[in-house]
Amino acid sequence: MTEAWTDHTLKALRAACHTADGPSLLALLRTHDADGVLQQCGDALVTAVRQRVSGARESAAACAGALRQRGWSGDEELTGQLDAAVHGVTSVLRPVPVALEELSSLLEGDPVWGGGRLDVTTGECLPAAIGTGEPWDEGDGEDTEQWLHVPSTGSHDAYRDMEDFIATLDDRDLARFLHTAIQGPGAFRRFKDMLGAAPTQLQRYWLFSAERQYGRARAWLADQGYRPAPPNGD
Fold first, then answer.
1. Is 169 domain-assigned?
2. Contact in structure between 77 and 38 (CB atoms under 8 Å)
3. Residue 188: which of 232, 218, 156, 213 has the closest Cα?
4. What is the per-residue pLDDT for 142?
5. Closest CA to 109 of 95, 129, 138, 131
6. Which pTM value belongs to this model?
7. How far apart are the C-alpha atoms of 105 and 213, rounded to whole Å?
């Protein structure tokens, strides 16, 4: 029986992913539900396979199967990366050491600020208006081989995440209250305030939301010809 993710174990998971610590990552996945963190740990798992960490191939194959069954945005791309690692095939996508959380912030931020840009050599994500107060575009003199323009799609997908999360709840009373809460301006604040009274569900939502956001960022990156790679990974 697997354990629920806690703030402590999620912090350990992120540390293991950031440092490409394969043994620690696999130890966590053996005792916790991997389905809730597939997008968050997938790239580090790919690295663990390539580093031939004991048990990594089996874990990667299991995660790829879970991704195929789930089928969210970005899951197909991550499945391809895991399969390539398991079978020793080199991915056609170029690696960039970008944090998907930061990339997602640009993609799903306020469209007024125009998204931002990604340094494909370092993985640095910069909001469009930093240092200038004006949106950046590909004609501003920057090295376009180094920088990738990141558009902003707004909060529509994040709103849909709230709707889809509500549909997963067994507590129909809570589901009904949350559905009412997300109507009209201030929906995100009311939704999170109401979930704050149910800490277990709030933790589930944060994991659910992160998985969806990471997946959308991964799918967008793949469309540009890139894949994320841990800063200390491959």
1. no
2. no
3. 156
4. 55
5. 129
6. 0.90
7. 9
Residues in the chain, how many?
234
Alpha carbon distance 226, 94 (integer Å):
5
Q: With contact defined as beta carbons under 8 Å apart, do 117 and 149 qualify?
A: yes
Q: How far apart are CA 96 and CA 227, in angstroms?
A: 6
| In a domain? residue 56 | yes
Strand pairing report for 116-119 and 147-150: antiparallel
Q: Which domain holds residue 24?
A: 7-92
63 domain residue, yes or no: yes
| Sheet of strand 125-127: strand arrangement | 125-127, 116-119, 147-150
Contact (Cβ atoms closer than 8 angstroms) between residue 96 and residue 228: yes
Angle between helices 38-50 and 7-18 (to 10 degrees): 40
- Over residues 64-82, the pLDDT tens digits come to 999 999 999 999 999 999 9
14 Cβ partners below 8 Å, 6+ apart?
Answer: 40
DSSP 111: G
Strand 125-127 to 94-96 pairing: unpaired
Residue with tokens 């600020």: 113
Q: Which two tokens stand for residue 199?
A: 């800490």
Residue 131 in tokens: 């240092």
Number of structural domains the chain divides into: 1
Whether 167 is in a domain gets the answer no
Q: Are 41 and 184 in contact (CB under 8 A)?
A: no
Q: Return the axis-axis angle of helices 38-50 and 75-86, rounded to nearest 10°.
A: 20
